Amino acid sequence: MNVWWVICVSLAAAAVFAALCWYAFRYEPFNFKLSRVSILVKDGQAARNDEGRPGEPVLSILHLSDFHLQKNSKGRKLFKFVTSLKNLKVDFIIITGDLLESDENINYLIRMLSPLSAKYGKYAVLGVHDHYRKSITEFAKNLLKRKRRYRRENDIGLIIKRLGGIGIEVLMNESRKINLGRGGINNIEIIGLDDPIIRKTDIARAFSNIGSPDEPELQKKADYGSTYKYLFKLKKEEIHKINSRGKLRIVLIHTPDAGSIIEVARRKSDIVFSGHTHGGQVRLPLIGAIISGCRIKTKFASGLFYFKTFILYVTRGLGEGRYSQFRFYCQPEASLVRIYKIE
C-alpha cells in the first residue's frame, strides 16, 4: 500500500512539474497580448470633469519592447503578432530596446517592423542586447555580477541605418520636438536615452537642445535617498499635471534605472517609457515579480505608475533572452497607450 502511494504521489508530482514546464517554456512566452493603457493628464489646475470620464485621447502611442528577435519558433510567432498590428492608427510608435539578439537578424527585424506606421513618427532606443551578443559564459557570469561590457559587439551603425531606412529613428542620447499643429497639448518632446546598464546614458547631452530647468523642489534634495523617497511615492490621484503647459515631455529608456529616472525627473519629464524587466519574467499570484533585473523595486517591474512629478510605464515586453526563454504568470505584451487630457 505504501509503495503504491509513493508511486502515485511521485507520478502526480512529475505530471505537475511537466505541466508547469510546458506552461513556462511553451505556452506563456507565445501568449502575446495587446494591452490597452490609459494615461490621464491635466494642463494646469483643472480637475476631472463632472462625469469623471475623459473624452477622446489627445495622443495615441504603440509601445513595443524587448523582441530579442531570433529566427526560431518564438521569433516566427512574434513576427506574425507584430505585423498583425499594422492596421492600428496611432500618433507615435516607440520601441524601448533589445530589438534583437544578434545583428545577423537585422533583415528579419526590418521585415517585421516595416508594415507599422504612425502619424507623427517612429522612435527607438537601444538596450544591452542591441549593443552586444552575449555568450553563454558571459550570461552565466552576469547572473553573479553585472557586466558593463561584453566581448562581441553588434554593428550598431548598421542597425541604426537600417531602422532609419524604414522611418524608425534611433535616439542615442538625443531629443526631438514635434509640433502637432493643434490645440491643447500641442508640443511633444521625445528624449531617447541609451542603456544605463552598460553606462552609455548621457542625460545632459540628451536634454541639451530642449532646455531642462530643474524641478524646484528637487533642488533642495541633494542626496539620492531623500530624492528617491520624494519622487517614487505613488500618488492617490491617478492624474498627472503636466510640468509645462501645452507641452508633453516623453522619455524613452530601455532600463528603468532609478538613478537615471531621478535625473530625467529633475528635468521636468512627464512620462517615462521603458522595458528591460520583462515584467520580472516570473511572477507569483498576490506577490508579483520576484526580481526586476535592474536598480528599481520589484513592485515597479511592470505597469503604469503615477508618481510625484512624472508617470512611469514599464512594459512586460514581447520576448526573452536567448538563454532564458521562459515566462511564468507574466504574459508578453505590446501596449496601445492612449493619453487623455482631463479638463
Measure the end-to-end span: 73 Å
Question: Helical amount among residues, as a percent range?
Answer: 25-40%
Q: Number of domains in the coordinates?
A: 2
Q: Can you name the CATH architecture of the largest domain? A: 4-Layer Sandwich
State the CATH topology of the largest domain: Purple Acid Phosphatase, chain A, domain 2
Major sheet details: 7 strands, mixed
Principal-axis shape: globular
How many whole angstroms does the radius of gyration measure?
21 Å
Tally of strands: 15
Order of helix and strand elements from N to C terminus: HEEHEHEHHHEEEHHHEEHEEEEEE
Number of helices: 10
Tell me, rounded to a whole number, the average pLDDT: 90
Query: What is the structural class?
Result: alpha/beta
Name the poorly predicted regions.
Answer: 46-52
Strand order of the largest sheet: 5-4-3-2-15-1-8
CATH class division of the largest domain: Alpha Beta
Proportion of beta-strand residues: 15-25%
